[in-house]
TrEMBL record:
It comes from Trichoglossum hirsutum. This is Arylamine N-acetyltransferase. The lineage of its organism: Eukaryota, Fungi, Dikarya, Ascomycota, Pezizomycotina. The keyword Membrane does not apply. The keyword Acyltransferase applies. Keywords: Acyltransferase, Transferase.
Length: 300
């Protein structure tokens, strides 16, 4: 759990309008998720820019990284942190696990990977909601009620959907899981993004999942450098996303994608992280990427 002082510092960090929403209400949770996604980037920098290339799931370590260092993390860091914040505020919730779809992972086929994702299930007024701040550009933008075939708006023209179905991989026809899907607009097909269950996972479960995700050469996160945050308009509404992926910074607003900057070297990428995301790496962290497949080498 986080202390009252830690919670106050975090709420200030994300510019949360304290006093504008009834505590423990759906509107409070919705605003909290929106502000968090706009301030705390979905990123995997510590797998590349660090001495150990390992990630801690200790809530206090993640707090220091997010609030004190102005960094972010990937799903298990983000949702461990956000879930701990919600528990400390008094929300009722539990952690559970998810499987990412092959389509979302950029793989051929209609299957799902092994357990590699983490989400929070929050209960408000007897209704359970999916709350996920750790899936980057196409993740849920607000709490989604666990209602079969529920559809809601995402960012701009985007739509989000939950279904309670069996997966193609299930051998038992009675199996059911929740499937989160998204599509860019009404004219584009749905993409199954990940599935999750309503079984409580423990932090010890995530320690096992995290080990593979942060160390395997087959893991998406060990092969690319990325940093993503949502963008708010002048009214405080989510209007788009800012994405640093490998050697490029892009903004996606209103269904239109603009290239903001091309990155030719590590020096440029490190400066871009500071310019676009406010992330300052230490000299030791900068050296951590040397020799990795993700290092940007200047063309001589």
């Amino acid at each position: 759990m986080y202390s009252p002082d830690q919670l106050t510092k975090y709420l200030t960090h994300i510019s949360f309008p304290v006093g504008e929403h009834a505590e423990l209400s759906l509107s409070y949770l919705t605003e909290l998720q929106k502000r968090h996604r706009a301030k705390v980037p979905f990123e995997n920098l510590s797998l590349h820019y660090s001495k150990t290339h390992l990630l801690s799931l200790d809530p206090q370590d993640i707090y220091k990284k997010i609030v004190d260092r102005n960094m972010g993390g990937y799903c298990m860091e983000q949702n461990t942190f956000f879930g701990t914040v919600l528990q400390s505020l008094g929300f009722t919730l539990f952690f559970t696990g998810g499987r990412v779809s092959d389509a979302a992972a950029g793989l051929p086929g209609a299957g799902y990977t092994g357990w590699s994702h983490m989400v929070n299930i929050v209960t408000i007024d007897r209704q359970r909601y999916l709350v996920d701040v750790g899936f980057g550009a196409d993740g849920p933008t607000h709490p989604l009620p666990l209602v079969h075939r529920h559809i809601s708006r995402g960012i701009s023209t985007q739509f989000l959907k939950l279904e309670y179905e069996k997966l193609q991989q299930h051998s038992d026809p009675s199996q059911r899981v929740w499937i989160y899907s998204h599509r860019a607009s009404q004219d584009t097909p749905w993409t199954e993004t990940y599935s999750f269950v309503e079984i409580e996972f423990f932090l010890t479960d995530y320690e096992v999942m995290n080990l593979s995700t942060m160390t395997s050469r087959q893991s998406f996160f060990t092969q690319v450098v990325l940093c993503v945050k949502t963008l708010l308009d002048g009214h405080g509404d989510t209007e788009g996303v800012l994405i640093l992926f490998q050697n490029e910074v892009k903004a996606r607003i209103g269904g239109e994608v603009s290239v903001m900057e091309k990155l030719q070297s590590e020096e440029q990428r490190i400066k871009a992280l500071e310019k676009w995301f406010g992330i300052l790496l230490t000299e030791e962290e900068k050296k951590g990427i040397r020799g990795l497949v993700t290092e940007l080498k200047s063309k001589s």
